[in-house]
Amino acid sequence: MKRVFLATVVMFMVGCSDDTKQSTQVAQKEAVVKEEAQKIQAPVVAAKESVAQEVKASQATQETPKTAEVVQEAPKAEAVVAQVAEASIDAAALYQVCSGCHGVDGSKVALGKSQVIKGWSAKKISDALHGYKNGTYGGAMKGLMGAQVSKLSDAQIEALAEHISKL
Question: How does pLDDT run across 122-137, given as a tens digit for each residue?
């Protein structure tokens, strides 16, 4: 029992030291994503303002606005912003913290107490991680896992779940 406790403490400390490096990398990547998103959103905002001006002008002159294409492109641009944000999350780097207990391919029973996560669907993993984060999921590993996922954003959890489901 003492060995299991000692192994748990060591694995937690190793995970925590990796978390600091990982958190810094994630923060840097998130800053880049925000900057890219702002670059992409600027034309969308400008297009929406242009559409509003054209609509006002057309109402005044009773013309049909010629900006239907711009109006249709705005949601597409917003979708691109979301894709850029999701694509910038390095799920493999996030999983490195997990691999200490779950194994490189998710096939280990973490600390002899968890389930093997290899083969789980992205939804099942996402539900479990969100449950650990809000304290509604987990058995023996609930406290340890809650601490691990508490720092992750919803987008990071989704990216991580997708990554693990493909191991």
Answer: 999 999 999 999 999 8
Q: How far apart, in Å, do the first and last CA atoms of the chain sit?
A: 31
Measured CA to CA, the distance from residue 54 to residue 59 in angstroms comes to: 8
Minimal CA–CA distance to 153: which of 21, 13, 22, 38? 22
Residue carrying structure tokens 């987990």: 138
Q: Rounded distance, CA 53 to CA 40, Å?
A: 21
Q: Which residue has the tokens 């054209």?
A: 54
Using alpha carbons only, what angle is made at residue 132 by residues 129 and 136, rounded to the nearest 5 degrees?
120
CB 161 within 8 A of CB 133: no
How many residues does this entry show for the chain? 167
Q: Which amino acid is at 105?
A: D
**Tens of pLDDT, residues 7-24:** 565 565 655 555 556 666
- Residue pair 129/157 in contact (Cβ under 8 Å)? The answer is yes
Q: Where are the alpha helices (DSSP H) in the chain?
A: 2-61, 68-87, 91-102, 122-134, 142-149, 154-165
